[in-house]
Amino acid sequence: MRKTNLLFIVFIVLFISCVNKKSKKSNLPQHINLDELKSVRDLPLLSDFTVNTEFIKLERDSHNLVGRINGLNYTEDFLFVASSHNLLIFERKTGRFIRKIGTRGKGPAEYQSFRAFEIDELNKHIYMWDYFKKQFIIYGFDGDFISAFRIEGLDNDYPEKFKLLDDKRIVVYNNNDMGNGDNSMFLLDMNGKIIDSLLNKHQFKVVFPLS
């Protein structure tokens, strides 16, 4: 592999609207029954599902190496890429590298292992979930640390992903990988206080050693 000429191509399909040739009433995703296809030639074209497709070549050098992509989000101006343990910002139109968000560590403004992130485009905030610290860390688009807060009352739960519902609520998903999670989902306010929760009905016992 060439070290200097590598271009990492991110293929982004923007689902601006759903196109359905058979019906104009539904905007739901189209379902394809693969068992009914006689050959791969019967597969629908990409143009049947999308209105606009963008190819963005991300700038790469020793300061912004992009490995496995764990998350992707974008605004009109920026492209946010979670790669390995880094969160990188690129220019949306050109793919030019802008900055890295945050640093790994145990300090109050650092993260140990973030598993998910969300973009608050209105306030230009980036919410990152630190799995080990069990807390949200908020950065600005400029990379500056803003604040951090924990979820109150977490015991056996290790949330994995979350979604910003609006400027007052966050929904959080617990992956229950060890089988002993108390809850499956949480509804939080913006201070980490649990408003409501959904109990985990699928607890199980993990047998060691794991296979």
Helix content: under 10%
What kind of sheet is the major sheet? 4 strands, antiparallel
> Quick one: how many beta strands?
14
Mean pLDDT over the full residue set = 80
- Supply the helix-strand structural class: mainly beta
User: Which geometry do the CA atoms define?
Assistant: globular
Strand content: 35-45%
Biggest sheet: strand arrangement: 3-4-5-6
What would your notes on this structure say?
The chain has strands at residues 8-14, 52-58, 69-74, 78-83, 86-91, 97-101, 114-120, 125-130, 135-140, 145-150, 159-164, 169-174, 183-189, 194-199. The protein starts with 7 loop residues before the first strand and ends in a 12-residue tail after the last strand. The protein has no helices and 14 strands. A four-stranded antiparallel β-sheet has the order 3-4-5-6, with no helix packed on it. It has a four-stranded antiparallel β-sheet with strand order 7-8-9-10, with no helix packed on it. The protein is mainly β.
Short key terms for the protein model shown above:
about 210 residues, mainly beta, 4-stranded antiparallel beta sheet, about 0% helix, about 40% strand
Outline of the structure:
The protein has 211 residues and is an all-beta fold. 0% of the residues lie in helices and 41% in strands. It has no helices and 14 strands.
